[in-house]
Design brief:
alpha+beta, Glutamine Phosphoribosylpyrophosphate, subunit 1, domain 1, six-stranded antiparallel β-sheet, five-stranded antiparallel β-sheet
């Protein structure tokens, strides 16, 4: 198991990232999502609450250039399912699962982002909490090593979770030009402390120059009540 603190310190620009797993006390499903940015347009964002989920929003609307890939709802809740993604495929998954499709089936109509030459992967996750237990899945849709003619689809399913353990997936493998897509399995990482301690650990260890916003939620396994923390660099 990798230290989340050390992993974040190692990555100067992981892009957008999702962590799903179980809290250290074994009582909560844990979800985290962060966004980073190198351009003025990407950095000009905040997370705001929308219903049971969140939405990205321009911090300064006058500086917004192209909202198409940066304004979306990263988190939505559908009954016992909490959906977390790095784009508008949140809505695709929500609508698909509401219609009886699986998480994986819902994403069959989507591909990576059309932002050549990076072709940013679409990363997605879902947590299922019921009967005092949890399971979760993570997905990545990415180009074939930068070839936009081929979409590679990977889904990783975790039937249950261990206390203090989660899995971390992010969009970019390293800070380079063009940005190389994440590869391999989601990293097995630790989830330490209560929600405030965990939020603080993540925020403090994300690259100071590039971090933009962070969302963390702990969902009680007993009754699905939840606590949420949102941290925005733009205040």
């Amino acid at each position: 198991m990798i230290s989340m603190k050390e992993e974040l310190n190692r990555l100067s620009y992981p892009g957008r990232g999702i962590v799903l797993g179980m809290s250290e006390d074994g009582k909560h499903a844990a979800a985290a999502y962060f966004i980073m940015g190198r351009s003025t347009n990407s950095r000009n964002r905040i997370f705001v609450t929308e219903g049971e989920g969140i939405r990205t929003e321009a911090f300064d609307p006058s500086k917004m250039e192209d909202p198409s890939l940066i304004i979306y709802a990263p988190v939505r809740v559908l009954g016992q399912h909490t959906i977390v993604t790095n784009g508008d495929q949140t809505d695709t998954i929500y609508d698909g699962m509401a219609a009886g499709k699986t998480f994986e089936e819902s994403l069959r109509c989507r591909e990576f982002e059309p932002d050549a030459p990076n072709y940013t992967p679409r990363i997605s996750g879902v947590i299922d909490v019921q009967d005092g237990k949890m399971c979760y899945a993570l997905s990545i849709l990415k180009s074939a090593d930068g070839d936009p003619e081929i979409c590679r689809r990977y889904t990783f399913t975790y039937d249950g979770a261990k206390a203090g353990e989660g899995h971390f997936i992010h969009t970019y493998q390293e800070n380079a030009e063009p940005l190389p897509s994440f590869f391999g399995e989601p990293r097995q990482v630790d989830i330490k402390g209560d929600i405030d301690e965990y939020t603080d650990l993540l925020w403090k260890n994300l690259n100071e120059d590039n971090k933009v916003s962070l969302f963390v939620r702990f969902i009680d396994l007993a009754d699905r009540t939840y606590e949420t923390r949102i941290v925005n660099k733009n205040q």
